[in-house]
Amino acid sequence: MINTIQKMFLGNSPSWYKSTIVVFLIINPIALVFLNSLNLNGEFIVGWMFLLEFIFTLALALKCYPLQPGGLLAIQAIALGLTSTESILHEIENNLEVILLLVFMVAGIFFMKNLMLTIFTKLLLKVKSKTYLSLLFCISAAVLSAFLDALTVTAVLIGVTIGFYRVFHTVSSGKAFSDSDHNYLNNSLLSEAGSEDLEKFKGFLRDLVMHGAIGTALGGVCTIVGEPQNLLIAKIAGWEFIEFFMRMAPITMPVFIAGLITCVFVEKFSIAGFGNQLPESVRTIFNDFDEYEKQNTTTKHQAELLVEGLVAIFLVVALALHIAAVGLIGLAVIILLTSFKGITEEHDLGEAFHEALPFTALLAVFFAIVSVIHDQHLFTPVISYVLAQSVDTQPPLFFVANGVLSAISDNVFVATIYINEVKAALDNGLITREQFDHLAVAINTGTNIPSVATPNGQAAFLFLLTSSLAPLINLSYLRMVMMALPYTIVLSIVGFISIVYFL
Fold first, then answer.
1. Average confidence score pLDDT of the chain
2. Is 92 exposed, middle or buried (CB count within 10 Å of its CB: 0-12, 13-18, 19+)?
3. Is residue 210 part of a domain?
4. What's the predicted TM-score (pTM) here?
5. Residue 162 and residue 63 share a domain
6. Is the Cβ–Cβ distance between 197 and 238 less than 8 Å?
7. Which helix (H) or strand (E) holds 219?
8. How far apart (Å, rounded) are the C-alpha atoms in residues 283 and 280?
9. Which of 98, 167, 279, 367 is most enclosed, with most CB atoms within 10 A?
10. Buried b / exposed e across 321-335, counting CB within 10 Å, b at 16+?
11. Residue 44: what pLDDT?
12. pLDDT tens per residue, range 229-280
């Protein structure tokens, strides 16, 4: 029985991975008792151990989905008294809008996949230059993220890329492909593509989705609605939409331009794994697919595209005008699309939620680790050090500190901690209003820009890493870090210089 349980533990994960998680679970309580016996503030040190262990589970997400090992660590943290269920619930309540967004908006995008696949297939075929296509993905994601939000845009990117992969895989494997009772392909489209072309195609898709993901960060930092912490910072600072944009512009605009230049360079010179071209055999498959679509489109399919197009317009307008929380708008999208497309069976609805719900559960576990950070004051020494420096050096130091801490934990949490500390300093007369404004800009840009370094830095990146797309295109944690590295270096340097000279 014990041997069977050992084999079942964490399923098909490698034995060394299972052993590592077990070692973590054994060593944590021992370290806590030992350090406390030496009067070394064991809770603080072990809290950092938990944070690094959780990052380890994220880094190896393709070996085992982080929910299980990360969840075991979170349960142990509660048992050891490093945080409480009340604190975790408080973190979840503070991020309820993000959770609703994941549950409903991602599912809403799922029901819009026909329209997205049609639009982006035509885009793929019209734009022959990989560099122009990459720029288009990056700019589009940036503009959409500035007026919508990064997670929604990432959900679109994932949906489109999975659609591309499904078309290729279906045609090359010779299988029938149907969606909503509409047959897309028949035997005339069947084409054989070698494994080499498959790997090139995976690389091509990986490049596009990473450029798009970086674009969500470039646009997300610019406006109140781009990232969750932007709204919080604006609310505490008393800035409206235009004022927020104008105050951030001296840093965000140079960073945006630098990001686009970086996009061109990494593609032109095939840096950090970029530069993968679309094989001609794959382009032929998509040409055939597009031609078949034109010749065999049914009235029902045209009606579905019309419905999806109208709902897409509603989605953009509703998000731009902020008529409700993003998740509630997503729920409205689900209701409208399923109603007018005739999708009324429960099992047909359930498929749409498969992508988001595991990540939603993982995010709740992530908030448990964030709760440990908060309860054990893991970042307090850094905050205290920065606030003790001279007025002129505080903004660039805040930018660096926020960037580093966001990359290893979560940018929303880091921004929340820092802006509240700075507001308290303003209320207590320790800093002036002008100094507060400069620090608020440094906090927002610091948590949004350098955090592209790792998938756990931003929820959109973490969502991409743990999505069903990641294993399809061989997008691991380390590969994401390496592909983001040129952007991380350039954007962080330009952001830092802009803080020093333009703020």
1. 84
2. middle
3. yes
4. 0.79
5. no
6. no
7. helix 195-220
8. 5
9. 367
10. eeeebbbbbbbbbbe
11. 93
12. 787 788 888 888 888 999 999 999 999 999 999 999 999 999 998 999 988 8
Q: What angle do CA 245, 332, 229 make, to 5 degrees?
A: 30
Q: Say how far apart CA 253 and CA 503 lie, in whole Å.
A: 12
Which residue in the block uniquely carries the two structure tokens 């494997």? 173
Structure tokens at 455: 């998938």
Query: What pLDDT is attached to residue 387?
Result: 76
| 184, pLDDT greater than 50 | no
Domain end call among 354, 369, 396: 354
Dist CA 199 CA 176 (whole Å): 22
Residue-wise pLDDT for 114-135, tens only, equals 787 777 777 878 888 899 999 9
107 and 149 co-located in one domain: yes
- CB-neighbour burial class of residue 55 (10 A; exposed 0-12, middle 13-18, buried 19+): buried
Question: Regarding predicted confidence, which is higher, 319 or 339?
Answer: 339
pLDDT band at 174 (very low <50, low <70, confident <90, very high): low
Domain total of the chain: 2
* SS3 (DSSP) at 183: strand
Strand partners, 183: 178
pLDDT at 188 over 50: no
DSSP secondary structure string for all residues of 109-124: HHTTHHHHHHHHHHHH
CA end-to-end span of the chain, whole Å? 65
**In this structure, are 146 and 195 located in the same domain?**
yes
3-state helix, strand, coil in the chain (%, to 5): 80, 0, 20
Q: How far apart are CA 231 and CA 241, in angstroms?
A: 9
What is the distance, to the nearest Å, from the Cα of residue 37 to the centroid of all Cα atoms in its chain? Answer: 41
Beta-carbon contacts of 330 under 8 Å, excluding residues fewer than 6 positions away, are 100, 101, 103, 104, 105, 106, 107, 108, 152
Q: Which residue has the tokens 């679109």?
A: 156
Same domain, 43 and 154: no
Rounded to the nearest 10 degrees, the angle between the axes of helix 150-173 and helix 326-341 is: 40
Structure token digits, residue 15:
């034995």
Residue 235 CA to residue 83 CA, distance in Å, equals: 28
**What is the span of the domain harbouring residue 47?**
1-82
